[in-house]
Design brief:
Elements lengths: L1 H19 L6 H17 L6 H23 L1 H7 L3 E8 L4 E2 L4 E7 L8 E6 L12 E10 L2 E2 L2 E2 L2 H4 L4 E5 L4 E3 L8 H16 L2 H12 L3 H5 L1 H9 L10 H15 L3 H17 L4 H18 L6 H15 L7 H26 L5 H5 L1 H25 L1 E3 L2 H28 L1 H26 L5 E3 L5 H16 L5 H29 L2 E5 L4 E9 L2 E10 L5 H11 L5 E5 L5 H4 L2 H7 L2 E7 L7 H13 L2 E5 L3 E5 L2 E6 L12 E6 L2 E5 L5 H11 L6 E3 L11 H6 L4 E4 L11 H9 L3 E4 H4 L2 E6 L2 E4 L4
Parallel strand pairs: 4-8, 14-15, 15-16, 16-17, 21-22, 22-23, 23-24
Antiparallel strand pairs: 1-3, 1-5, 2-3, 3-4, 5-8, 5-9, 6-7, 10-11, 12-13, 12-25, 13-14, 18-19, 19-20, 20-21, 25-26
Helix pairs in contact: 1-3, 1-13, 2-3, 6-7, 6-17, 9-18, 10-11, 10-12, 11-12, 12-13, 13-14, 14-16, 16-17, 17-18, 19-20, 21-23, 23-24
Length: 763
């Protein structure tokens, strides 16, 4: 069994190296060399060389597999990039319908084209009525799926999707009889509808995530999403080993743990994996559970490390690009942590409890806490890199929510099954289960609100602190202390160090005369101003970015030690200035929101913002007259709309940090800028936030010449509008401006002292 583990781990290591380290063209030569080494070592006949031979052969297989897979998928996708093609394809799932387009996954079946999986974006909505198994024909422009918003993005390749197709003609749908391949998608769709019918609206998104791994609706519920993420409970909603264990436990509870129960569990596990989308974490769990269930039947001993290695090898053999999947990386890292530390932590936690009934009553909670602690050593770096935060409260959250989550899973599926035979009985069970879901969300929200429950990687000392924690635990591992002391003392020291560092960061921002920051939110704008303990945010929106503007802004502010926002100013209601405001308000309390008079609930972003403000008791001010806001030593002159509607109906702002002034003109046109200059002269500013993301119709010659500023910030990202325009940049350079751009320079932070501003190094 260990020979299989060595070979599988070597294969997987080569795949990861090919993805992240090795040049693609070198892979066949490296595979051939490793194969030769492996054969020579085998032929040597020395027993002790066999393990090295297996390693070499595994490495050769990994390099060769990755190379051949990319020749068949990634290379053809790049060759088709930018071309227009007549497509014949088969629908793989139900379309997702948005306001202006629908999206669906297809398998290309043209004889002249590679048979790749692709995402189709259809603005005509012709595909909105398609079902899995249907054949479709359309003309589309193809683009490789390894780029998104101008950035390299391996998410789609990891999901076995290699092309994006934008339809250029109405699609023709040829309805087909349902096939076996389409059955999982149809069952998934039917279960989704059943859950929506059975469960109340406030818990349906949670239950769909838990039962089917479909988190699309949960992402729209900012409050629940944030609470579950920050408390460390989102992993429970990603289909993985936890769900497989719940399913097997439910079946064995009804059928027993004998041979018959095991034989029934195996097909049910794989059916569940297919219905929920066969994510890498689910496949990993299914392979390991299958080996565990089959071991007694085959009279073999189950070996968890071998099962883990075999599962990883199986997934990467089918799609080596799955190595880039966050789901796969976290799932295997978590499982490795449990195998290495889980049993020891569980024994120690159990030993801390009094014997008898308390120990039996808390057995489930202790097991959950031990697992949550065990996964941390290997998952913390991955979580910090991929999600930008680390939840420190997750072990407590797991202990408090494990039982409720397991009951939600079992109760949810039982309610769906019972409702098929007797609707009232299924609905009654769903009603009870919904209260358990509310409990999980409530506990998650309370835990997430605890200070230092979450550490964001935008925190300046984060990498240093995480590295120090690892060194501290490693040091105490070798000290002559009892097991509990080896864990508790470094844990307490780590928390103390975190508190010291975060308070030092907070004081750094409070003691300066002021700070002004333009966050890198993609094609949009989000500006933050600090003065002492006072905080103002101007706009919070972004488009065509891999990250959500509200979450980016919240992370930044929390990492700076800010715990509330005194004033949120929205210059105008366009999405690229306002679509992140609601999520930001969920992350930090906001005292007041200032909006331009004239915008109303017909604006989508503003409607959600007003609703959120009403729920949280935030004051709403619709500005129709010029006003001055004072936040400690910072004063903000707000100019009411000078134009009619649209961009020209927005607010203009002048921020005064003592002798250092910043001008923010929103997206107003040059005509409105000139009207404002007539009222605002004389100007003596130091910093200008360039209007309308550098568009040619803003930042007039008069404004640039009369503002007095010598530094300009362009808040811009990947876009199709041509921002920033060349003529705007030329005007800026001609007037002597030092220009910073968020798309090139990242988040720009200006430290203000004694009337002077200095750009801080990017974090």
């Amino acid at each position: 069994m260990r020979k299989l583990a060595i070979t599988a781990f070597s294969f997987s290591a080569a795949v990861f190296a090919a993805l992240y380290l090795l040049p693609f063209r070198a892979l066949p030569y490296l595979a051939a060399a490793l194969l030769a080494v492996g054969v020579v070592l085998l032929l040597a006949g020395r027993r002790w060389l066999r393990l090295f031979a297996l390693c070499a052969l595994g490495l050769a297989a990994g390099c060769g597999c990755f190379y051949l897979h990319d020749l068949q998928t990634a290379v053809p996708a790049h060759l088709l990039d930018g071309t227009t093609q007549e497509i014949e394809a088969r629908i793989l799932d139900y379309p997702t319908v948005y306001e202006r387009y629908c999206r669906v996954t297809v398998k290309i079946e043209n004889e002249s084209l590679p048979h790749l999986n692709a995402l189709v974006y259809d603005e005509s909505m012709a595909l909105s009525a398609a079902e899995p198994g249907d054949r479709v024909r359309f003309t589309a422009k193809a683009s490789s799926a390894d780029r998104k918003y101008g950035e390299a993005c391996d998410v789609y390749f990891a999901r076995d999707l290699y092309l994006k197709l934008n339809t250029k003609s109405g699609a023709e749908i040829e309805e087909q009889r349902p096939t076996a391949a389409a059955l999982p998608a149809r069952i998934h769709h039917a279960l989704t509808q059943r859950i929506e019918q059975l469960f109340p609206s406030d818990t349906a998104a949670f239950m769909k995530s838990l039962l089917l791994g479909d988190k699309s609706d949960l992402y729209q519920d900012e409050e629940s999403y944030l609470a579950l993420s920050r408390a460390g409970n989102m992993h429970a909603l990603a289909v993985s080993g936890l769900h497989i264990a719940f399913l097997v436990g439910l079946v064995q509870l009804m059928l027993g743990r004998g041979l018959f129960g095991s034989l029934v569990c195996i097909p049910l596990v794989w059916g569940f994996v297919l219905i929920t989308g066969a994510s890498p974490s689910a496949v990993r769990a299914a392979v390991m559970q299958t080996l565990l269930l089959a071991a007694p039947v085959l009279r073999r001993e189950n070996d968890p490390p071998t099962s883990l290695a075999f599962a990883l090898g199986i997934i990467l053999l089918q799609n080596p690009r799955a190595a880039a999947s966050v789901s796969l990386q976290l799932s295997f890292a978590a499982m490795a942590g449990i195998l290495c530390f889980g049993e020891g932590l569980h024994r120690w936690l159990v030993s801390c409890l009094p014997a008898g009934r308390p120990r039996r009553l808390l057995a489930g909670a202790v097991a959950a806490a031990a697992s949550a602690l065990a996964v941390l050593p290997f998952t913390v770096p991955l979580t910090a890199i991929h999600f930008g935060y680390v939840s420190l409260i997750s072990p407590i959250s797991a202990a408090l929510c494990y039982l409720a989550i397991s009951l939600c899973f079992c109760g949810g599926y039982l309610a769906c099954l019972l409702s098929l035979a007797l609707w009232p009985l299924g609905a009654a069970l769903a009603w009870v289960t919904a209260w358990l879901a509310r409990y999980v969300c409530l506990v998650s929200g309370l835990l997430a609100s605890i200070p230092y429950a979450v550490v964001y990687t935008s925190f300046r000392w984060c990498v240093l602190w995480i590295g120090g924690v690892y060194l501290l635990f490693l040091l105490f591992r070798f000290l002559p202390l009892r097991r509990g002391e080896k864990l508790l003392i470094p844990a307490l020291l780590s928390v103390l160090a975190l508190m010291v560092l975060m308070n030092a960061e907070r004081l750094r921002y409070e003691r300066a005369d002021g700070y002004f920051a333009a966050l890198n939110v993609g094609q949009g704008q989000c500006l933050c101003a600090f003065s002492g303990t006072q905080t103002a945010v101007i706009d919070c929106g972004g488009l065509m970015s891999l990250d959500q503007a509200g979450e980016l802004a919240g992370r930044f502010l929390l990492s700076c030690g800010r715990r509330e926002i005194d004033t949120l100013i929205v210059t105008h209601p366009d999405e690229d200035h306002a679509n992140g405001a609601v999520l930001l308000m969920e992350m930090l309390p906001v005292r007041r929101v200032v909006l331009p008079a004239g915008c109303g609930e017909e604006d989508t972003a503003i409607a959600g913002l007003c609703e959120c403000a009403a729920e949280k008791g935030t004051a709403l001010i619709f500005l129709s007259e010029d006003s001055v806001l004072r936040l400690g030593a910072l004063s903000i002159d707000l100019t009411a709309p000078l134009g009619e509607g649209g961009n020209d109906g927005g607010l203009l702002a002048a921020l005064h940090f003592g002798a250092y002034d910043v001008l923010v003109t929103g997206d107003v046109s040059q005509e409105v800028e000139r009207a404002w200059l007539m009222r605002a002269l004389p100007l003596d500013s130091e910093l200008l936030v360039v209007g309308h993301h550098g568009a040619k119709d803003a930042s007039s010659e008069e404004l640039l010449r009369l503002s007095g500023a010598d530094t300009a910030i362009v808040s811009v990202g990947y876009n199709h509008y041509g921002h920033p325009a060349e003529e705007t940049l030329e005007r800026l350079y001609a007037n002597g401006y030092n220009v910073y751009r968020t798309d090139r320079d990242g988040t720009i932070i200006i430290r203000i002292e004694d009337g002077h501003g200095e750009k801080e190094p990017e974090r």
